[in-house]
């Protein structure tokens, strides 16, 4: 294939390309550099991008942008790449919750599409059937937030949340549904403002249609009191 054709093919594939791997593709040396070193490097490169676009980096409004973007990448929107920021697993035993389905719905989700580096904005709904071990509800929000703070594809994000909760809770019985808008679809390309993408991952007993139905019923419950 000629180079142009490859570029076109990649462009066309866009968000349709999903690696079958649950792990975020990273190099072995990903954390050899300190956060401060990464900020330095990214800052220089953002400067280069803005410079290539012909922007005047001496302008008062623009001169702080490279540093601001670099810090935001490393500490905020891509902070979830670093395992040291992973939320601590604090679980507790509650035998009264044994066999009960617990659902945390409408968890606000901000992530970034790894194909265009544009925002993904939506809601995550997470559920599990307790084997006696439970986690605080805010914990589920923090796990969603941690994996969302990476360059992502929505399918992988959904799987990573389920896998993490399965490990924390010691059960396969975990489910996650994400309903999100991708700004790369909504604001550019075909500019479909209304569309959203729904992905789901069902583990253990959630593969059973009845448990899945229960979970989806919880999600669809009107809880605006
Ligand atoms: Zn995209």
Describe the structure.
Homopolymer. InterPro entries: GTP-CH-I_C/QueF, GTP-CH-I_N, GTP_CycHdrlase_I, GTP_CycHdrlase_I_CS, GTP_CycHdrlase_I_dom. By secondary structure, this protein is of the alpha+beta class. It has 2 domains: 12-85, GTP Cyclohydrolase I, Chain A, domain 1 (Orthogonal Bundle); 91-219, GTP cyclohydrolase I, C-terminal domain/NADPH-dependent 7-cyano-7-deazaguanine reductase, N-terminal domain (GTP Cyclohydrolase I, domain 2, 2-Layer Sandwich). It has 7 helices and 7 strands. The strands form 2 sheets. Strands 5-2-3-6-7 form a 5-stranded mixed sheet. The chain has a two-stranded antiparallel sheet with strand order 1-4. Strand 2 and strand 3 (119-129) form a beta hairpin. The longest helix is centred in the N-terminal third of the chain and has 18 residues, at 35-52. The protein is elongated and about 65 Å long. Bound molecules: zinc ion. Zinc ion binds next to loops.
Task: Provide a compact summary of the structure.
The protein is an alpha+beta fold and 225 residues long. The chain has seven helices and seven strands. It has a five-stranded mixed sheet with strand order 5-2-3-6-7.
